[in-house]
Amino acid sequence: MTTPQPPYDAAPRPPDDERPQMGGISIESVAEPTEYQTPPQWPIQPEGSRLTAWWRKYGGLVTAAATVFFIICGFISLTRANQPVPTVTVTQTATVTATATSTQTVTASPQASAGEQVDPRPTVETVPMPDYTGMNLQEAQDRLQVLGVYILDQEDASGRGRVQVIDSHWYVCRQDPVPGAMISSATKVTLWSVKNNESCG
User: Fold this and answer.
1) Where are the beta strands (DSSP E) in 46-151?
2) pLDDT over 80 (residue 169)
3) Which residue would you say has higher pLDDT here, 88 or 148?
4) What CA–CA distances, in Å, run from 32 to 3, 15, 36, 58?
5) pLDDT at 195 exceeding the cut of 50
6) How many CB atoms lie within 10 A of CB 189?
7) What is the pLDDT of residues 21-62, one digit of tens each?
8) Whose CB has fewer CB within 10 Å in the chain, the N or C terminal residue?
9) pLDDT of 105 over the 60 cut
C-alpha cells in the first residue's frame, strides 16, 4: 500500500535506526496520521470580493426595481398636480327685517260728473302750525317731523350766520310760518334760534 504524499513539502524523515523507539514500536509511526487534511483552497476571496460577486449577480435586479419605484412615484406626483383644484362655494344668507310705519291721511276729491275734469293730485291734510317759540331746537324739529313736516330750515337769530352743529344746544326765538297757520308735508318751516346761554334780544 502506497502512503499518500502531502501536497506540501514535508521535513525530511530521519533514518529508521535514528528514530526513538518505544517497546519496539516507532513513536513517529504511532503519532503520524495515515491521512492528511485537505488545506484550504487558495486564494481565499476577501469580503470585498464577495460583495462584488453578489452585486454582479443581483445588481441588475436591484437597479430595475429602483427604476420602477421612481417611475411610479413620478407618475403619482404628476397625476396629483394635474387634478383640478376643488371649488369651494360659500353661501351667506342675510336676513334683514325692516319695519316702517307711515300714516298719511289723503282726502279724495269727489267723482266728477260727465264732462268735468278731475285733478289727479290728492288733497294733503293740513294742520295748524304750533308755537315753538322758546322750545329747544332739537325738540321742535322732532315734533314737526311727527306732524309729517320734513322740509326744515334753521337760521342764527343773532344774525351772525352761525351753524347749529348740535341742535340741542340752541332754542327757538321765532318761526315761519307763524303759529296757527295751516301747514302740510309740502310746507317749508324755518326756525330762528340762539344758544341756550344767550337771549333772543
Assistant:
1) 106-107, 123-124, 127-128
2) yes
3) 148
4) 12, 15, 10, 48
5) yes
6) 21
7) 555 555 554 555 555 556 555 555 555 577 787 778 788 888
8) N
9) no
Instruction: Please name the fold of domain 131-201.
Output: Trypsin Inhibitor V; Chain A (3.30.10)
More confident residue, 175 or 99: 175
User: What span, in angstroms and rounded, lies between the C-alpha atoms of 30 and 34?
Assistant: 10
Write down the pLDDT at residue 145.
94
DSSP 168: G
- Which H or E run includes 25? strand 25-26
Task: Give domain limits for the chain.
Answer: 131-201
CA torsion through residues 161, 163, 169, 175, sign: positive
123 - beta bridge partners? 107
DSSP 173: E
Contact 26, 13 (CB under 8 A): no
Residue that is written with C-alpha cell 340762539 in the block: 194
- CA dihedral 171→175→181→184, nearest 10 degrees, is -80
